[in-house]
What does this fold into?
Amino acid sequence: MNCPSCGTPMEEGFLETESLVSGVKWRKEITSMSRIGIGGERIYESNVWGIVHIKAERCPNCRLITHKY
It folds into this structure.
């Protein structure tokens, strides 16, 4: 895949996040409740160690990361 911004080839890899309780969530804004993991739409579950790996592509030139879920 080429970068939608500059057109150079993007690197394949993974985003990694640690969240034992709630996995990865999507939020439109950060609130006082979201700071402690309440609310949001769950996108991915975490594994038994609380780690989530998300397959993604990145452009190191533009500092752009894309992925589909």
